[in-house]
Amino acid sequence: MTEDWLRLNRENWDDRARVHADSDFYDLPGFRAGACTLREFETAEVGDVSGRSLLHLQCHMGQDTLSWARRGAAVTGVDFSEPAIRTARGLAEDIGAPARFVASDVYAVPEALGGERFDIVYTGIGALVWLPDLTRWARVVADALVDGGFLYLAEFHPMTDVLGEDGRSVAEGYFDGGGEVSDYPRTYTDGRELTRTVTVEWRHPLGDVVTALAGAGLRVEFLHEHPFTLFQRYPGLRRDGNGVYRFPPDRPQVPLMYSLRARQRNVRPSPR
Q: How do the domains of the chain map onto residue ranges?
């Protein structure tokens, strides 16, 4: 079944996109009214995007993409789900944001965008688990960047899949995460049950992410491991004043998310 991962995951996310568009979790009316979906640490680490071209890989319904557009970036969002892309295009029209959204899986991006290059490639927040081959992904990222451009990745830390439901015990092997097939009737938001319920996911150790990027010629400028996450993954987590979830200070802290920036360092020859 894992060899059919792309079809299974696309069908599942097509189904999810329809549920997500009507969910309170994604709150599209609130977004249309001006809400920003980017996290504070992301905007601080990426910096000023005014006038810069930004490619968002695995953009889902485009709220993060359009949040960068509201901050002045010229944005292109890519996702393999046609229903998600239709929603993203509708959102862009509703808020009057100049944005382009393209339906494509990550590995086909070079062909889908005709080899176009960008100042920034942005991705993350639950994206990498849907990709089986990080080496190939990193090459796509590197080829999409102008010389001196950078990737910004914000992701859930792979340690979160190792801990048990209590957040204290070790329940899974850190290196055991290849092609896991799951069958769940619901998505992570409110809404109806899904009709396409089978997915295939991969857990990527942090070292594999960094190694793939280095192998593609990118220079990692920082790797930050964060003791917070975006939802109450474990019962011991508490929401703080910034809206993120942390373990109380009296218990051992573990990384729950990470972020990194990696810059294109290859100098391509000028066209003759």
A: 2-264
In this predicted structure, the answer to whether residue 18 has a pLDDT above a threshold of 90 is yes
d(CA 48, CA 173) in angstroms, rounded, equals 39
H/E run at residue 11: helix 5-21
Look at residue 3 and tell me whether its pLDDT is greater than 90.
no
Interval 148-181: pLDDT, tens: 999 999 999 999 999 999 898 899 899 987 889 9
One of 3.30.420.480, 3.90.1150.10, 3.40.50.150, 3.30.70.20 is the CATH number of 2-264, namely: 3.40.50.150
Q: What does the pLDDT read at residue 266?
A: 63
What is the C-alpha separation between 43 and 49, in angstroms, rounded? 9
Which segments within the chain are labelled E, that is strand? 53-57, 74-79, 99-103, 118-124, 145-156, 180-183, 198-201, 218-226, 228-229, 238-239, 245-246, 257-264
pTM greater than 0.90: yes
**Residue 77's closest CA among 91, 64, 96, 93?**
64
Burial degree of 141 (CB within 10 A; 0-12, 13-18, 19+): buried
Q: Which two tokens stand for residue 110?
A: 């070079």
Which residues are CB-contacts of 188 (< 8 A; sequence separation ≥ 6)?
A: 25
Distances (CA, A) of 91 to 8, 16, 27, 126, 262: 26, 17, 12, 22, 30
